[in-house]
Write a structure and sequence with these properties.
Blueprint lengths: L2 H10 L9 H9 L6 H6 L2 H5 L14 H16 L1 H25 L7 H21 L10 H15 L1 H18 L3 E8 L5 E10 L4 E2 L2 H7 L8 E2 L12 H23 L2 H17 L2 H19 L8 E2 L7 E6 L2 H6 L7 E5 L5 E5 L6 H17 L7 E4 L5 E4 L11 H16 L5 E5 L7 H18 L2 E5 L3 H5 L1 H8 L7 E8 L5 E7 L8 H7 L4 H8 L3
Helix pairs in contact: 1-12, 5-6, 5-13, 6-7, 6-13, 7-8, 7-9, 7-12, 17-19
Length: 542
């Protein structure tokens, strides 16, 4: 390999669809704890992006430069769906190479040149496909990621080394792929015991089964050397996995020996060229899966009429979040429910909100929508809103009702308190905390008291937080909490209320205002037919 080829290989190692350079990639990996798996699951991000083979949290970043780099990548993929299809078609080639490497790394034929030829074949087929289908996008994309990828594929496929490799492969591979059978010779001693064995010839035809009795009677072996007169063993039948592997290794090693002289020169090509030039693509498998799934989500949301915007990313130190017309992408993408949008802002006037209102009034939907906005923005995706300005958070903490509380040892309240305590171990002023119906496992007085203490603590931390709750006493205590915490350096807390129309119909609009003190218990009783009038009607209907 000449100097230019080595320089090209070095350039390839920095190719990424998600990171501008190796330095930002390394820094992002170190900060990827910011989207814990339990938070991703509670926000239904795996359901939303439909990414099952990778941890979504590994793509989460706080780096403004990385986020903006990804925004351009997704803009290209959204504008050119055919480009996204090309990336999807890359994956089977890359999966095959991965499986091939696993196969020969776990067998005795790890150094077999024949396996190397198979990898070169897959590599050249992939490059040929990309040359035809990816390079035409050269003048149509604007993102640095896709421009760099197209440039590298162009350099690879136009290099003299690649062209020579392809020509030699076509010649040699045709010889190898023509193998249909081998003739095995076995020397016997005087007792007719096997003494030694080896490959006598490599044939382009398969051997044929013959009539055993007729062959034995005629003993006409010399004139019919491609007809089987007796099977040595029931091949693969009744053999365990180790026996089958031993048989396969024996044949592969024998065939490799036959072709060793012809393909010895391929070793350097495989080790120094193909391996390096496929490694950068193999490393991109998770990225390709992520960006193609993300692009598919964007198209799905567009088809549903969901508003999408590219968020304006501010520095983390500003701790700002402004969203106009914010929608819930899970509801937008997975249901036929009408789109409901809300506005919400975290700033110096309020960094924490207590949201109250009737059941199924939109409290939890808005709480999750804020989490989705942060997650999607920091994954590099558009956000489901008319406009968003956001400072990245260092971590998204969720405290939602779960179906697996450790209630045997602690009881449900104890379990909830333990999970809240664990958040305080890690939360910072730059975190986002989402509490949905927390501390609902105890009475309203006890729950409101503990919640007031918890909110006071988060106020002193200074993080952005939403507490969606049925604890109306907590909403009433907001002013008192502010009077205690703000003079000590805490951030202000405010109320939001899920509105209800005059006729009791949910509007699913959540607005910033003080609760009016109205109890929604009657509304809930009416909804489920448990008001006194409704019960009497049922009792006396007959």
């Amino acid at each position: 390999m000449d100097k230019n080829e080595k320089d090209l290989t070095t350039m390839l190692s920095d190719i990424s669809l998600l990171y501008p350079d190796a330095q930002t990639r390394s820094a992002s990996y170190r900060s990827s704890y910011g989207l814990p798996n339990d938070s991703a699951e509670q926000l239904e991000l795996y359901r939303l992006i439909e990414l099952s083979s990778s941890d979504i949290g590994s793509f989460f970043t706080t780096d403004v430069q990385v986020i903006q780099y990804r925004q351009k990548t997704f803009a290209d993929l959204t504008a050119h769906s055919a480009l996204c299809d090309v990336l999807v078609r890359m994956l089977p080639f890359l999966y095959d190479i991965t499986e091939l490497r696993k196969m020969y790394s776990n067998t005795a034929v790890g150094d077999s040149y024949l396996y190397s030829i198979s990898e070169i074949e897959i590599y050249t087929s992939l490059m040929s496909m990309l040359q035809k289908e990816l390079l035409p996008f050269k003048d149509r994309v604007h993102s640095p990621a896709l421009q760099n990828l197209i440039e590298r594929i162009s350099l690879l496929t136009e290099s003299k080394y690649y062209k020579d490799l392809t020509e030699k492969l076509n010649s040699l591979a045709s010889r190898v792929r023509d193998i249909r059978s081998v003739t095995i010779g076995v020397n016997l001693d005087a007792r007719l015991f096997p003494e030694s064995a080896g490959v006598l010839s490599v044939n382009s035809d398969r051997f044929k089964s013959g009539e055993f009795f007729d062959k034995v009677m005629r003993l006409d072996f010399k004139n019919d050397d491609m007809t089987c007169i007796a099977s040595l063993i029931p091949f693969y039948k009744g053999q365990n996995e180790n026996q089958q592997m031993a048989m396969m290794n024996a044949f592969n090693n024998a065939i490799a020996d036959v072709f060793k002289t012809s393909i010895r020169s391929w070793k350097s090509a495989v080790q120094y060229y193909v391996l390096d030039n496929t490694d950068f693509l193999l490393h991109m498998i998770p990225e390709i899966e992520f960006v193609t799934k993300g692009a598919a989500l964007i198209r799905q949301l567009q088809e549903r009429g969901c508003p999408l915007c590219v968020p304006e990313i501010r520095n983390m130190s500003e701790n700002i979040f402004q969203a106009k017309g914010l929608c819930n992408p899970v509801i937008s993408a997975k249901t036929d429910s009408p789109l409901i949008s809300n506005d919400i802002t975290f700033d110096s006037s309020a960094m924490i909100y207590v949201i109250t209102g009737p059941n199924r009034g939109g409290k939890s939907v808005l709480t999750c929508s804020v989490g989705h906005a942060f997650a999607m923005a920091q994954l590099g995706l558009p956000v489901c809103a008319e406009k968003v300005v956001i400072s990245p958070c260092d971590c998204i903490f969720t405290h939602f009702p779960t179906g697996s509380e450790d209630t045997v040892e602690k009881g449900r309240l104890g379990e909830e308190c333990a999970r809240l305590d664990a958040i305080f171990d890690k939360v910072t002023a730059h975190s986002l905390v989402l509490l949905d119906e927390s501390l609902s496992s105890t009475g309203s007085y006890e729950g409101a008291y503990i919640a007031s203490e918890v909110l006071s603590g988060f106020s002193m931390v200074g993080c952005r937080l939403i507490f969606s709750t049925h604890l109306h006493d907590l909403a009433a205590a907001v002013e008192q909490i502010n009077q205690t915490c703000i003079p000590k350096g805490g951030v202000p807390i405010d109320n939001m209320v899920a509105e209800v129309a005059e006729d009791g119909r949910r509007t699913f609009r959540v607005i910033r205002k003080k609760p009016d003190g109205k109890s929604y218990a009657k509304d809930i009783a009416d909804k489920y037919g448990l008001s006194f009038a409704q019960i009497c009607k049922k009792i006396y209907k007959n």
